[in-house]
Amino acid sequence: MDINSVDVERIVKQVLADMNGSAPKKAFSGEIPKTSKAAMLTALEHYEIKEFPIPELGDDDILVKVEGCGVCGTDAHEFKRDPFGLIPLVLGHEGTGEIVKMGKNVKKDSAGKPLNIGDKVVTCMIFKDNPDITMFDLNKQNVGGADVYGLLPDDDIHLNGWFADYLVIRGGSTVFNVSDLDLDSRILIEPCAVLIHAVERAKTTGILKFNSRVVVQGCGPIGLICIAILRTMGIENIVAVDGEEKRLAFAKKMGADNSVNFKNFKGVEALADGVKDAFGGYLADFAFQCTGSPVAHSNIYKFIRNGGGLCELGFFINGGDATINPHFDICSKEITTVGSWVYTLRDYATTFDFLKRAKAIGIPLSELITHKFPLDQINEAHITNLKMEGLKIAIVNE
Ligand SMILES: [Zn+2]
Fold it and tell me: Is residue 351 one of the residues assigned to a domain?
């Protein structure tokens, strides 16, 4: 490539302008259509692709052309049972896309980075009447109960979820410029934030250290991402527990150095011995419980050494009661337990750095996305998700 001095000067000017946040707004190269497709869940297990007019933007609003969106466990619950009573609605909260238009007041994202046409963004929660939730303090408040795009009741804008061609981000929403992440990484931000939060919760016990022996029980997407995060932060001694060899093999790809298939053991004592053997004769210093099974919760205490720690994060929804023995499992062992649920805004920003670092050290996180469907096949995507055939299912727009 032939770079002449004039070009260099222009590039330097552009870089300086970018740094100052005063770069001239690039125009969106494509044409913004008058209407947008959106997949609306109109009945249980039934999406309809509808066409809605793209509304006029307010001065604080952003119009995003959607590139992709992960299908979440929450979407599966809505699809099957509508537990939040939201039907009809446009679902999809693990989405990302490109800014194609924005109101005149929009200058920066929620972390203070400049926003311009062409930038790739994700959203987190929408602030309504809880100013506490805006705080970046670690562990202060998670987003439980906050509004997010993709779980909003339908209104006259309609373009409220990421399972669509366009999304209207309204003023007062959190939005992050993640132009430096590839599409697969951006689709994985939301589930990864759940695990960044869990690890931050685990760190508050003071037990999780570089040389800790850590057991991760459950190798669905949540457990697998947990392993990737532990490995990325420098923890080497990780044992994965699951009942499926395919998932255990994947756990090793994510950074587990040993695995235990619980189906090969009869009774929890034998299983605990199996975990101990996998650590070379030691019980775990710390455990992450990543399944939604009450039995798995009961079992995990047996894998932890005296004075060890536990983070329970498997129960996103009520999975029923679990039985433990308070004497053996908690008192006499002096186990420190933390619970973890969703994430804080701060965790969201930390997740961007994690995704870059994981890629840099060669963890193939994008392989977690096992299936990609176009928007038109959103019903098929959800059915595949319900069959639990893959790991992460994503809608990817062309
Ligand atoms: Zn989700």
Answer: no
pLDDT mean over 14-28: 51
- The pLDDT tens digits of the residues spanning 218-269 come to 999 999 999 999 999 999 999 999 999 999 999 999 999 999 999 999 999 9
- Kindly give the distance from the C-alpha atom of residue 112 to the centroid of ligand 1, in angstroms, as a whole number: 25
Q: Which of 203, 189, 195 is nearest to 228 (CA)?
A: 195
Kindly report the pTM of this predicted structure.
Answer: 0.88
User: Are residue 122 and residue 209 in the same domain, yes or no?
Assistant: no
* d(CA 150, ligand 1 centre) in Å: 10
357 in a structural domain: no
CA of 269 to the centre of ligand 1 (A): 35
Distance from chain centroid for Cα 169: 19
Supply 312's token pair. 């329970």
- 30 CA to middle of ligand 1, Å? 30
Q: How far is the CA of 93 from the centre of ligand 1 (A)?
A: 6
90 C-alpha to ligand 1 centroid (Å)? 14
| Per-residue pLDDT reduced to its tens digit, 143-190 | 666 788 999 999 999 999 999 999 999 988 889 999 999 999 999 999
| 391 CA distance to ligand 1 middle (Å) | 13
Numbers of helices and strands, H then E, in the chain: 10, 17
Confidence of residue 22 (pLDDT cuts 50, 70, 90): very low
Task: Flag whether 348 is in a domain.
Answer: no
Tokens coding 86: 């939201």
The CATH code of the domain that includes 58 is 3.90.180.10
Tokens of 115: 């926003």
The reported pLDDT for the residue numbered 16 is: 52
